[in-house]
Amino acid sequence: MSDSAPAREAWGSRIGLILAMAGNAVGLGNFLRFPRQAVENGGGTFMIPYFIAFLLVGIPLMWIEWGVGRHGGLRGHGSMPGMMESLWRHPVAKYLGVLGLFMPVVVLIYYCYIESWTLAWTWASLRGATQGLDQAQMQGFFRSYVDLDNGTVHGFWTPFAFFFITIAVNFYVVSKGLSAGIERLAKIGMPILFVFAAILVVRVLTLGSHEVMVDGVLTQVGPIDGLNFMYTPDWSALASPKVWLAATGQIFFTLSVGMGSLQAYASYLTKKDDLALSGIATAATNETAEVVLGGSLAIPAIVTFFGVAGATAIAKGGSFDLGFIAMPLVFNQLPGGAAMATVAGVMWFGLLFFAGITSSVAMATPALSFVEENFGWTRKKTAMVLGTFAVLIGILHLVYYTQGFLDEWDYWAGTFGLVILAMVETIIFVWVFGPDNMWREIHEGASIRIPRLFKFVMTYITPVFLLVMMIWWTKEEALPTLRMQGIPEADHAVRWASRGIMLAILLFQLWLIKAAWRRRALDGKEVA
Amino acid sequence: MNTVAIIFMGGAWLFVLGLALWSFRKLLATPPDETLPPPGSIP
Q1: Is B19 close to A280, i.e. CB distance below 8 A?
Q2: Are B35 and A272 in contact (CB under 8 A)?
Q3: Smallest Cβ distance to B33: which of A232, A272, A448?
Q4: C-alpha–C-alpha distance, residues A71 and A77, integer Å
Q5: Are A84 and A93 in contact (CB under 8 A)?
Q6: Which of A232, A285, A443 has its CB closest to that of B5?
Q7: Which residues 11-40 on chain B approach chain A with CB closer than 8 angstroms?
Q8: Residue from A19, A18, A38, A15 nearest A290 by CA
Q9: Residue A211: strand, helix, or coil
């Protein structure tokens, strides 16, 4: 550790750290993406590749990212450019670290927009705006919100107002600092999230049977049929590479690895802090939220009122249809009338909001740390400038959402980019820094001894798994996406503009890294 | 609910809840400042 490393903030408590890390991981995907992925990829059999990916990629990447973060943090770096250079003394290393700035900033902007929907729907539930709507009207309610040209139900400015509020709340929290802002939010938000989710799960699983039309015959369907639908295995799925890829992808998204935010949080750990056990506890908390709570909510509830065929059709419409159209319809049919619909709606969208905000504040952290540490700005000033930037760029998502502006960012930064960063950091931390150094770093201050088998897994299996995944994704998804296959010609211009803006952000960040290192050289500071 | 679905759901729940309980019990049992000696120092 460099003696010249400046004093940095620290986590107030171990439980605060784990809740903040788990808050980062538990996001909208736990409750919306996971059930849909399971249903579409073999039901019960999906859990086999899912848990194999968890053990071979998820947990190892958790340790790798905590290790990279703390190693960098001890040398005064709260973001990936400095962390990379402290692991690999090569002029290129810091520029590879741009991925750990680019991904969280890009994802943060569009994630806040989706997070703002949850706030808008919480408000709509509170004032009973979704009550009494049938399926077509509920679809209209959603479409009218995301399509500004068709904003007849909500009014043109409503989505903007909720987006600005969401950004303001996010940047207010991060401007308060690590302990008073992020850690306090996690200590309040995570228990609320778990309590709301647990109450809703109990309510859903005790719903009883309802009559649903199946093949022209009225049939009794209940939440158990939903669980049955979700967990009945399709053995042929195990032979499909697509299913293995979907499972590994879900592990990536759910644990928030490959993003740069876990590393930023871990950079505030000290040499004495445990990361081996804390990493497992964080992953386990996330998996509980996903498998036990997320898996028992949307699908069983929707199957109860729409039957298996109806739920399949809704799931095919996407995660947002599941969360923002089908769930409010379910709440409208709950015994207890309008009051119950209001309570369930507020709990559902409230839990999604807390799941979202505890993740988005983590995404803001790497860029804030980078600017603070390299340009000497205060946290408040940095939060203000980054927040303004997020609002200005985020407006484009609101205006061009229906033309796929957000989809481009979600694919290139929020999906494909995660694998690239995970791959790069794994190679540098494990192969360049060295397997023995990596193993020693992870065990520094550890409360448990990690089975030695994992050293082999992290050295060989995890990188190979990531490489295979990246090659497969490039062939199957990235190239067709790049060529805009299946995208209406009319949307091409907007999508290209969307890519252009992402590229501009990437180039600007590369320039910032160059400027920061030039500043360091002028100040006579060397990377520790 | 069919038996195989119950096995898959039960297995998945058992795995994640077991891991969560084990890790949090261990965390609560270990004072934050108590650390293991570095790897390789115990013969």
Answers
A1: yes
A2: yes
A3: A272
A4: 9
A5: yes
A6: A232
A7: 11-13, 15-17, 19-20, 22-24, 26-27, 30, 32-36, 38-39
A8: A38
A9: strand
Distance CA A290, CA A31 (A): 6
The distance of A212 to chain B (nearest Cα, Å) reads 17
Q: What is the pLDDT of residues A66-90, one digit of tens each?
A: 999 999 999 999 999 999 999 999 9
With CA atoms as reference, report the closest residue to A51 among B12, B42, B39, B40. B12
Give residue-wise pLDDT tens across range A106-143.
999 999 999 999 999 999 999 999 999 998 999 999 99
Distances, alpha carbon A431 to alpha carbons A425, A449, A460, A466, in Å: 10, 21, 9, 14
Average pLDDT over residues A247-272: 92
Inter-residue contact A484 to A395 (CB < 8 Å): no
How many CB pairs below 8 A link A and B?
99
User: Residue B17 carries which side chain, given as an amino acid letter?
Assistant: L
Enter the tokens of residue A45: 């059999």
**pLDDT (0 to 100) of residue A473:** 86
Closest residue by Cα to residue A273 from A8, A4, A454:
A8
pLDDT-based confidence at residue B43 (cuts at 50, 70, 90): very low
With CA atoms as reference, report the closest residue to A528 among A8, A64, A7, A72. Answer: A72
A394 DSSP assignment? H
| Predicted complex ipTM | 0.88
Tokens of A292: 């036990």
pTM of the model: 0.92
Three-state SS for A218?
strand
Say yes or no for a CB contact (<8 Å) between A284 and B19: yes
Q: SS3 helix, strand, coil % of chain A, rounded to 5?
A: 80, 0, 20
Q: Is A391 left (phi over 0), alpha (psi -120 to 50) or beta?
A: alpha
Q: What is the maximum alpha-carbon separation in chain B?
A: 52
Task: Give chain B's radius of gyration (CA, Å).
Answer: 17
SS (H, E, C) A439-476: HHHHHCCCCCCCCCHHHHHHHHHHHHHHHHHHHHHHHH
